[in-house]
Amino acid sequence: MSYQLPPLGSLRAFEAAARHLSFKKAAEELHVTPAAISHQVKALEEYLSIKLFHRLTRALELTEVAEAMLPKVREGFSCLAAAIERTHRHKEGGSLVVSAPPGFAARWLLPRLHSFRFHYPNIELHLTSSLKTIDSNARDGPGADVVDLRDEASDVSIRFGNGRYPGFSVDPIFSPSYVAACSPRLLGGAHPLRTLQDLTHHTLIHDDSIPDEAERPNWEEWLKMAGVTDVETSRGLHFSNAVLALGAAMDGLGVVLALKPFVTADVADGRLCIPFDIAAPSRYAFYLVTPEALADRPSVVAFREWMLAEGARETLS
């Protein structure tokens, strides 16, 4: 059968612009200029003899026809990616690129990698970390749930978010809770940390790596849940990632509100303690996210099975 198709570049520009609802963001993704994206989209509109976008003052809006067309265009690119992937499978062997949030990579995944290496010694693992793997609730509107792993050049992404990633294979790993943690040294001294009211005499450490506090309990919400309202929560030390915040807590600089799975090993080794039996659930969870075209790659299957088994152990602990 003979197919009459528009240039692939114009379809790719349309898909990116429709996903971001922005020529500028589509241009950044495809490493071209916004004018080039606009030109490609216009060429596609002329080829189809139909309008694809309502060009508003500061935004783009899909036409009804474009909304109906977009899912099939995405499906087509997924099929192309799957076809290319089949040709690469044997050449790439056991190479695997995994991206994860910095705190998850350093505090949870890294200590467990000896187990993965033991079971899969022939897989060449490349681990990267990025705050881009943490969802932001500021990303609302059409296309907000679409995650583009191509920007990270990863085969598998560990994401901390809401789990809605259309077009990707998604598996929940575990849903963590937040606890207060500190150096055991703070349990003694001039102002021993024994009750929640004793936090008044200690520095509160804030992990600012999660971009939207609406998606996780902050100190004020955590204390309110515990029935405490007379502790000033806006004071303290702020850090840009969980690793720095936990390091400050280990050094005795204050009390940190941290994801429990990130501190269990340090609690067991005596570097940290959890002074209060209070845990606030996170509204986000950790997910293993893979492009559907790569889901059957042997190295991806191996990592997925191992990661989900480790996550199940975390849930049971």
In words, what does this structure look like?
- The structure is a single chain.
- This protein has 317 residues and is an alpha/beta fold.
- It has three domains: 8-77, Arc Repressor Mutant, subunit A; 93-175 and 284-316, D-Maltodextrin-Binding Protein, domain 2; 177-281, D-Maltodextrin-Binding Protein, domain 2, CATH 3.40.190.10.
- Helix content is 38%, strand content 18%.
- The protein has ten helices and twelve strands.
- The strands form three sheets. Strands 4-3-5-12-6 form a five-stranded mixed β-sheet.
- Helix 1 packs across helix 4 (64-92) and helix 2 crosses helix 3 (34-48).
- The longest helix is centred in the first third of the chain and has 29 residues, at 64-92.
- It is elongated.
- It starts with 7 loop residues before the first helix and ends with a helix.
- Residues 89-93 and 138-146 have low confidence and may be disordered.
